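TOPIC: backbone geometry
CONTENTS: sequence, structure tokens:
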Amino acid sequence: MSDSDSLPAMMHERERWQLILTRLRDRGIVRVADLVGVTGASVATLRRDLAKLEDSGQLRRVHGGAESVASGQTPLTAPSFDASQTLNADLKQAVAQGAANLCQDGDSIILNAGSTTWFMAQYLRQHRMQVLTNSFPIAQELIAHSMNRVVLPGGELYREAGIILSPFDEDAIQHFAASKMFMSCYSITPLGIIESDPLVARAEAKLLTRTENLIVVADSSKFEARGNMVVCPLTRVTTLVTDTGAPPHMLDHLRQLGVEVILIDPSKAKVLTAA
């Protein structure tokens, strides 16, 4: 082995930290498994590094790695798919199951990119529908484990968020007609359905043009004043599927606007098992 081959194993703590932070600036998220290969350090060592960097406010740990806490460092500022998938997973699964019950064989539906809609896709394994999605993970799930037909829009894949985004107004979705769209979101406020990233908000607004019926799939943690991009007003929502922990005043407000509210009791939901 040459001297250069052994350099990663000799990397000092400060050098590892600099490499981790540099990769975060470039990619928005880093995985421990990837850092093992480039630093030569053990998984335990790298986890300690990430813990120290999180304590100093320089990153935020997520399952399997870390993500940047700085805004504007990446072209897409939406939360990474891996990070979103682990937050409130039990509530998301319960809500996803309730939403999946609204689907029937032969439907043409839209699933937007999101961790809740990804859980929903797992409950659609026995269905035979046509599904348009801008989520690469959802497409993978449906192709691998179901007989549903999958339609993808053209565009660039943003790997960490798992979203396919097109810079063009005219793409494959212009020829798709859906009976309903299932949409997860960053938050729900009196101003409307909110996203955290303008690119994501624009993509979802385009998907909305392909259906009249919008079904928002969101657990009770989404009823917070966060995010700054309004995808659509609450009057555009046909149905909301959420859990029993959602704030009553917001549910009453939605009902007054003509939105059908379906409440799911998480304690009675079927828990997903590993594939």
